[in-house]
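Listing S7. Sequence submitted for prediction.
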Amino acid sequence: MMKVMSIMNGMHSFVSGENFFRPMLNLDRKNYIRAVKETLKFILIPAFVLQEGKIKKGRGSGSTFAKD
């Protein structure tokens, strides 16, 4: 559940901060959305790939909690 919440938090942060970040980055809306997608992939995908590799190797979920 926490993993889903972290993804949603990332998305909501960029959405709610759009009016603040876009002028700072000098991007139109279309390019801002593209940049956000690239950034979220850069941040989130490696974490899930690393976790998947650990699970396949039999090391567990990598979490200290009983259930994520």
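Caption to Listing S7: primary sequence and predicted structure tokens for the chain studied. The helical segments are 2-16, 18-25, 29-56. Confidence is low (pLDDT under 50) at residues 64-68.
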